[in-house]
Amino acid sequence: VYSCPAQEDTSTRPGDVNCDGEVRIDDVVLLCRFIAEDKAVSTQGRLNADCDGIAGITSDDVTKILRVLAGLE
């Protein structure tokens, strides 16, 4: 189970699903696992995962993170 640091706060880091301070492909993998019903994402990670501007975690959030990683946004 991935969990964010003990010092969780209410601010979010869009796309940082595993809460390691960076947005990388492993965030996408973890988000896809979560969407596929693997609930291994912490509360803070879920807040960070919801990054496409529309409430709720969906595959659109995955697409948003991938577009950022590809330098398209």
Describe this structure in words.
There is one protein chain. With 73 residues, the protein is mostly helical. Helices cover 40% and strands 0% of the residues. α1 runs antiparallel to α3. It is globular, with a radius of gyration of 11 Å. The N and C termini lie far apart (29 Å). The relative contact order is 0.23. The mean pLDDT is 86.
What structural class should be given to the helix and strand makeup? mainly alpha
Taking the alpha carbons of the first and last residues, their distance comes to 29 Å
* Number of separate strands: 0
Q: Element order, helices and strands?
A: HHH
| Rg | 11 Å
Number of helices: 3
Shape: globular
Indicate the mean pLDDT. Answer: 86
What percentage of amino acids are in beta strands?
under 5%
Which key features would you list for this structure?
single chain, 73 residues, mainly alpha, globular
Topology:
Elements (H helix, E strand, L loop, with lengths): L24 H11 L7 H7 L9 H11 L4
Helix pairs in contact: 1-3
How do you describe this structure in short?
This protein has 73 residues and is an all-alpha fold.
